[in-house]
Amino acid sequence: MLQLDKLEFVGREEHLNQIISLVQDAKMLHVVLVEGRGGIGKTWLLNELKNRLNKVQIGTSEIIDCDTPIFNDAEDLCTQIAKQLYDTTYQEWLLRLRQLREDENHLSQIAYQEERRQIEKFLVDEINRKSRQQRLVFLIDTVEKLGQPEIRAEVWEYIANLCQQLDNAVFILAGRPSVARPILEKSFNEEELTYFELNEFTHEDVQTYIISKKEQLHFNLGKDLVQKIIVLSGGSPIMIEFGVEYAYREVIPDWLESEDIETIPARLEKTGGFEAEMVRHITQLRTSMDRLTLLLSRIYPLDSYDIANLLEISMEDAEKLFIDAQSYFFIKPVMSGNQISLHDIVRDLVDKYVWTDIDPDFEWRKRDSRIAAKYFEQKDYQLGPQKRILEVQLSSDDSHKVANIEFLIEELKQLREFNTTRWLWNALYADLTIGFETWYKVTNTIRTQAKKISFVNQLLGIVKQFEKDLDPDQKLKLIIFESRIVHALKDKSTTKHEVKKLEGILSEQSSNSSHKADIYNVLGMLNTKLHLYNEALKYQQECLSLVQGKKLSSAIPRVANQVGYLHRQLNNFQEAEKYYKLGWDAAMEVDTPDKGLTQAMASIQNNLGFLYGQQKDYVKAEQCFKAAIDMWSSVESEREIADAEIASAAILVDNGNYIKAKQLLERALSRCDNEENDNKIFCRAYFQLGLNQWFSAEVVNEAVWDVTQVQWDLNLLSLAQDALEKSLKLADKYGLEEELPKILHQTASVYWHLGFQTGDRSLQEQALKLNERSYQTSLEYNDMRYAIDSLVGKAEFDYYAKAYENISDYARELSDRFLSYQNTYQLYFGRILRIEGDVAFQQANYDLAFAKYAQGIPQIFQDGGFGPYSIQHELNLLQKKIERLPIELAKTLIQQLKHQWQDNKALKEWCDQQMFLTRIRATKQPSSHA
Fold first, then answer.
1. SS3 298
2. What residues pair up with 171 in beta bridges, in sequence order?
3. How far, in Å, CA of 217 to CA of 222, rounded?
4. How far, in Å, CA of 196 to CA of 191, rounded?
5. Where are the beta strands (DSSP E) in 800-866?
6. End-to-end alpha-carbon separation of the chain, Å?
7. Residue 594: helix, strand or coil by DSSP?
8. Is residue 31 helix, strand or coil?
9. C-alpha dist (Å) from residue 560 to 225, 295, 557, 684
10. What is the per-residue pLDDT across 340-364, written as a single tens digit (0 to 9) for each?
11. pTM
């Protein structure tokens, strides 16, 4: 028997002629939608359209069948469309698509949508480029299966938008009724969209259809049998095909030939109807085709190699079966003819009527899935080395071959992902207990190492198919896993929802629940993401207590490290050190640390280094950073090494060691070569580099007595601007919300100083806007440090602008809103008092000025400050102010300072120094505040 696409088409002539005419003549047409129930003849219609359109010189695609498991979203359909264009288009599309999917969890939502629009524009431009030569028609079948159910509406909105941008191309879509029609009708007018509904044939149409089939197949079908098929098929083309083809192949059921048409309906009522009888012969498993049909009803699409392994037959027999199978009307060649699949209505019938008869206890299907799981698992491990071989070639081959190798790598990744989905689905079906553990292990590895969140979500969709059969323990484990995915995403509202959900689950857990520690841990992580550090600390401490009680030595270091980090965020330095060391001591009890534990220990040392640096213990800080770098080097973690170098540089910047800090930051940047994967490293490195350039840009001038007189090296300040802008761009692009407040504020400061010194008002206006954004963003993300810093920044900028009347309002807001944070952020509370003092000094209200200095300077001293806000810088400026005062007034004010600083030995000694210098000045000449 010939293949379906070579059979002469029968019926639907009116529809065919209408569609061809529309495609040829209707210039405004974008979409033809053909709908009808399963088995009504949509696929045959598309096949005939393809044949006839090609004859009239209209560029027609291969039929793209969405009835394969690879069509998870709109971009998967676009991949198949790109294949129909130029080879270079497909290669470029696939590379861009893979990058987009890797970026999905890295980019901010705005940047991700922009990148998605760019890749869509690329495809639109390529389709339009090709359609300038001739009109293009894309034939797409089984469109109701396109996209995961939860995003199907979004997928169709994407497709509608894509079609609207095409100049000379038409999409002919065929499928069962779905959400596609209302969305397309909303998107297009009548000239742009044409809708057809296919219905059952009339008795006369069926008779004509059968006569035509008999002529094509050159065999005789008895008049009595024809009448029976006409009546029993109900006008359904696929049922007609069943009857005619089975008669031709001589596998027609005996009762269909022997019984009268009047008695057959009663028989069929008992057996499930005509459609059931048309597939029930498969239960006899008389042929290899029957076995293949059963296999394809569950695992598809398949190539000849798959068939050989899954049916456990020779390769020669499998290749013959692969070819023979395509002569059956219900077998569809897919994926450019390299694989075959079962018509979806036949798959439904086999599942409904055949499997229930031959496999009531599901053991047969489980056996098939065990074989399939093992086969696809082996295939998965074979694909890994193939990718590594290509990657070696990529690093060694000539540059002109690079693009092709990159494309082959991406195509191999796509193939491996599809294979992984089939492996895990079959593993779950074969044995839910073992399968779930396999699924969890593989999917968690992809989540933690490859970080492919979009693929993880696909695999999550697979296990969800089995969710109702999971036991309570597995269901809880799955919920916790989903929460870890939420932690990796950038959606704040989803994170809040997940916290509430987990808190509800936690309240239902018994005291000895094996998952309680995991729930506490995830709740801690989610609250950390929301910057709710007190809540996060509460949960992580509960988690730590549980893992300590169970003596889980490998878990204690990681959790204790998280507890220490949260204490540091809350400026509880002693507690932070205590928990870091607790984690370190627990790790030291493990004789042979694996890679994971080594990384945890390195992280603890890195965090200790940062902690000691904040406490100005620079020697201990440097020792810890070196230890962290050495540990990460032992497991070749370049990204983490760079992170430690950036943390070390941050402490050096605070300490004023700008040259060494710059060297470390440049070394960290050199370790990273992929912005998408290393965006956080780049962002932090450029931020610290910007601070470093800014702080080192100050031109030392002993005569300066007010902050507004400080001059900056404009070249270094421009370099600072460039680095901070790079950092800000990365934070915005990749949604690094925790980095934004500080970058915005410090960029605003550099803009302000550049604008102030050069007289560029536009830069100063930008500075005000950036600083306001920093303030609002800090409040939104609960970043109290930069909320306070940016509020003080407002006062600082207004002081430079001589808008003195606003400054008391900022001071009042700081006190009213943030007073509870005064002990934690003394530097900023001290600075705003100093700014108020400077205003009073400018207005010659010296008593008030020095009263403010008396309150503010000790707070700055307590913190130590950094860069232009260091205590030494502040005292130098105060000294120069004192030198401008009349001798007696200066002495009086110094005495007042000393009196109020009685409990601070260092500041009291500084007052004595100023008093002596003032006496020396008295012997020379008087000074006055000018």
1. coil
2. 31, 138
3. 14
4. 14
5. none
6. 107
7. coil
8. strand
9. 79, 51, 5, 25
10. 999 989 999 999 999 999 999 999 9
11. 0.80
